[in-house]
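Researcher: Please predict.
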Amino acid sequence: FPLFLQVTCNCFTISNGEMQDVGVGLYPSMSLLNHSCDPNCVIVFEGYQLSLRSVREIQIGEELTISYIESLMPTSERQKQLLRQYCFECDCLLCQDQEKDSEKLAGEEHAWKEVKDAVNEVRYPKSKEEWKRILARCQNLLSSNMGRLPDTNIYQLKMLDCAMDACINLESWEEALYYGSRTLEPYRLYYPGFHPLRAVQLLRVGKLQYSQDMFPQALETLKEAYNIMKVTHGTDHSLMKALMEIKEECEAMMRIQ
């Protein structure tokens, strides 16, 4: 049991190129890093290889920090998860100021609570029929909450992400782009500066724009993704190479036109 607890407190969630969880691993030296909800470093994976990358200028003697949890949650939810899993309370500036909590829970409370419950019920589907059912649920809630929930509400944002994923898996590219485009401003708000999640989201939307022959828009989106990803992932990362490839294809299509 003590070994299990040590693993629970010190393991890292391994993610794939699109920042989706695929497993956990133990990286002893990285376990020495402390938490901040507004960290100066991020963890990215290339397969099972872990890299620690700084996302802003770090002063001599300044502690390196990472976020142990998803920072999109409101302050109270972050504190609950940190206390439950890691047995401490965070006192970083983000938690002290409770910055952006009002935006995260904007809109009608009963509406976002219904969306929150729906998002929490979603499990990764294994068939197109399951994806169709999830998309129908997302469409129904997004439609019924029009004007009641802004896209900056974090549960509305998660619902948009879910709808986008469903459309991609169902090869409904135009509709996927519609939902994906709506997520960009909330991502900019909640992941300012250099954040791998925002870079990946920009890449996904850029690819969808490219699929719809929206080459100028796609190029701008991919450039924005590149400027973030060169910091968060580095130029040698496979995801960066994929980004450069589609960016070059987009530039070539624009020259032809």
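Model: Strands lie at 11-15, 21-26, 34-35, 41-46, 49-54, 65-66.
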